[in-house]
Hints:
The complex is a heterodimer of chains A (337) and B (176).
Chain A: H1 2-27, E1 30-31, E2 51-66, E3 69-76, E4 85-88, E5 92-99, E6 110-111, E7 131-137, E8 142-147, H2 153-158, E9 162-168, E10 178-187, E11 197-199, H3 203-207, E12 213-216, E13 225-228, E14 232-241, E15 246-251, E16 255-259, E17 269-272, E18 274-277, E19 281-288, E20 293-299, H4 303-306, E21 311-317
Parallel strand pairs in A: 1-2, 2-5, 3-11, 4-9, 10-14, 13-21
Antiparallel strand pairs in A: 2-3, 5-7, 6-8, 8-9, 10-12, 14-19, 15-18, 15-20, 16-17, 16-19, 20-21
Chain B: H1 2-36, H2 38-45, H3 62-66, H4 76-86, H5 92-96, H6 120-125, H7 128-137, H8 152-165
The structure holds copper (II) ion.
Amino acid sequence: MNRKIRLGILFLTGLFVSFAISNISNAADEVAKLTTAPEVPPALSRAGGANVTVELETSEKKGTLADGVEYTFWTFGDTVPGPFIRVKAGDNVTFNLKNSGTSKNIHSIDLHAVTGQGGGAKATQTPPGGKTAFFFKALNPGIYVYHCATAHIPTHIANGMYGLILVEPEKGLPKVDREYYVFQGDYYTKGKTGEKGAQAFDVEKMRAEQPTYVKFNAMATPGNLKANVGETVRLYVGNGGPNLTSAFHVIGEIFDTVYQQGAVGSEPAKNVQTTLIPPGGAAIVEFKVDVPAAYILVDHAISRAIDKGAVGILEVTGAEVPQIFKPLKVGGADAGH
Amino acid sequence: MKNLKTSLVMVVLLIPLYLVFTMLNGSAAQADSDNHESAEHMALESSPDHEALETKVPSGKLAEVRAFKNLVASDEKSLSEAKAIYGGKGTCFNCHGEKGMGDGELASSFDPKPRNFTIPVWQKVRTDGEIFWIITNGTESGMPPFGDMLSDEEKWGLVNYIRELGKTGGVANKSN
Ligand SMILES: [Cu+2]
């Protein structure tokens, strides 16, 4: 009798456990949460191997390239850069691409995180108002660029069709206090830098690799990145080009850690001042913000920053830490006399 | 053994025969196409429209492609549907231009340029089958393949519409 009860309990426990397990794997079937730059979706608290659906729509949309300069961007998700996508190594991803009915052009997507024909580009040539889809398994962890790959590809990229997809390693990335998404692109307008009004794309300037603007998060919500003194900040920095390699630098900071070229899994570099990010490449940089300041993100090919717009601001607030940094008073301008 | 030798000799003898035959055949075909439009051809050699003569269809497929039968009648209804595709989901106008002059907004991004459909000699030498094949398969140098994006019926409609673009008084050139 006793034994039968025990067996029964064992049986019920087994049932419960298997139910719970099947429930967990169901819970892992998810629609990827996408964010607009500079926001990054939260870290994934689950294991890899989930069935993830990504929904993305391409569009052509007017925006502001610089003060008083209007430009028709070609976009993923109505923003430039396109939304940040976050999955985990081992995930089974169903990618659904839509092209807005108001688009004038065909669009598509090539994700550098994809192993397969064209990174998805062949399967996703999508006419205005159309829909396409493909499946891929996220094999390699890392931070990857995605971009449109429809003819004429450089034109589609120059108009802003790119973004980042993070494939988290199985154990996730080390925990940090803040994560932000920054993406550089070079732009080519018919008018000179600073010329106001609606500006058309200039294919000749693009071929000559002479941009009129270089921007971070060209079409994203304006505003500064923010952090508090003592926090660790992680930036996912991508570069869409189409032409320029970025000398990415944050004025007044030193990168404690850099996953150069987004090589998650390799030993990261330590104590880096400036990191190279080629077109179609990305890096992850991390640093502790020790003192309050307005830290300025730049492409340190510095005329791009000062004259063409490649500037962003990380605003760090908190108490001064004079042991680390303080301005010294040495009197007025004529103090030396 | 003797049998084998004889057949070997036969084969060796046949090879030059075969070669001579194919060469004759080739030059005959060449002569044929030269006669076909020799005056025009000569004039075109030096004109900028010269490249319009060259088909974008791979030579191995050409015979088969030229024999394709247009499945859609060119009438008012099918032409207006095709016009909507040309200026809409087909996106043709972006590159080839609204009137088919090869001068769409994106034309300058391409080299070679998008085809100007109004060049008379192009209209003359290019068969419906070739146009259909190019719309389906695209080219390496910028024409996108529409095989998965448009139905065969839609593509044949576009072939007819491209013909209209080539006619000065055609439907396509009437103001909307
Ligand atoms: Cu595109």
